[in-house]
């Protein structure tokens, strides 16, 4: 079932005409909801194949002198690696741009935007099927804020999940901000 959902949503995302406009709306919703002064170290992803475009947010955070890290795949693991700009990324795993540089301890990450193919309203996600974030998320501090960015069609009522799966705390779409846990967002 997960694989069928993954294929269906990826096919829809591949032909989605409003991805750039909706990416801007998602980033604006993020900036309206969160007081960035509460966070020092942000982990985002570099967008690939019409994922929500995070580059504007990455540039803004760098301008505000925040510590920004992107994932670098090493073997079966993600290594959070500091970036200073977007110009010195190289093509890495699966053709996704990756940083070169200093890696940090995942415990230093205050806020992470977790990529996914789809989310449900409880904050569970369908990833890309390789388990990188399933292995990475348990390494974060319990109080690290986990956020999902997605287009409205990627937010489903329910996705299949296992007891060990991590939920995101907040899901941001072009039209809504959904808090998935009872704790208050910083």
TrEMBL record:
What catalytic activity is recorded? (6S)-5-formyl-5,6,7,8-tetrahydrofolate + ATP = (6R)-5,10-methenyltetrahydrofolate + ADP + phosphate
The lineage's top-level taxon is Bacteria
Which NCBIfam families has this protein been placed in? MTHFS_bact
The stretch of residues making up the signal peptide is: none
Binding positions for substrate per the UniProt entry: 51
Gene source species: Sulfurihydrogenibium azorense (strain DSM 15241 / OCM 825 / Az-Fu1)
Q: Which family does it belong to?
A: Belongs to the 5-formyltetrahydrofolate cyclo-ligase family.
Top-level enzyme category: ligase
Where ATP binds, per the record, is at 2-6, 125-133
Cross-referenced Pfam families = 5-FTHF_cyc-lig
Q: Which lineage do the record's taxonomy fields give for this organism? A: Bacteria, Pseudomonadati, Aquificota, Aquificia, Aquificales
Which GO molecular function annotations are given, in alphabetical order?
A: 5-formyltetrahydrofolate cyclo-ligase activity; ATP binding; metal ion binding
* InterPro entries recorded: FTHF_cligase (IPR002698), FTHF_cligase-like_sf (IPR024185), NagB/RpiA_transferase-like (IPR037171)
Q: What is this protein called?
A: 5-formyltetrahydrofolate cyclo-ligase
Q: Does the keyword Metal-binding apply?
A: yes
Cofactors per UniProt?
Mg(2+)
User: Which UniProt key words apply to this protein?
Assistant: ATP-binding, Ligase, Magnesium, Metal-binding, Nucleotide-binding
Q: What does the record give as EC number?
A: 6.3.3.2
One GO term of the biological process aspect: folic acid-containing compound biosynthetic process
Key word Metal-binding present: yes
């Amino acid at each position: 079932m997960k694989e069928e959902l993954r294929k269906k949503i990826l096919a829809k995302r591949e032909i989605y005409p409003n991805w750039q406009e909706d990416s801007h709306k998602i980033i604006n919703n993020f900036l309206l909801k969160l007081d960035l002064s509460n966070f020092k170290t942000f982990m985002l992803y570099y967008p690939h194949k019409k994922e929500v475009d995070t580059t504007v947010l990455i540039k803004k955070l760098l301008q505000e002198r925040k510590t920004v890290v992107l994932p670098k795949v090493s073997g079966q693991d993600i290594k959070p690696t500091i970036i200073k700009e977007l110009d010195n990324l190289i093509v890495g795993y699966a053709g996704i741009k990756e940083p070169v540089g200093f890696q940090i301890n995942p415990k230093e990450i205050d806020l992470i935007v977790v990529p996914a193919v789809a989310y449900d309203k409880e904050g569970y996600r369908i990833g890309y099927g390789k388990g990188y974030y399933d292995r990475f998320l348990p390494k974060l501090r319990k109080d690290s804020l986990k956020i999902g960015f997605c287009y409205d069609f990627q937010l489903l009522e329910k996705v299949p999940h296992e007891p060990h799966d991590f939920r995101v705390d907040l899901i941001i779409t072009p039209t809504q901000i959904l808090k998935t846990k009872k704790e208050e967002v910083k």
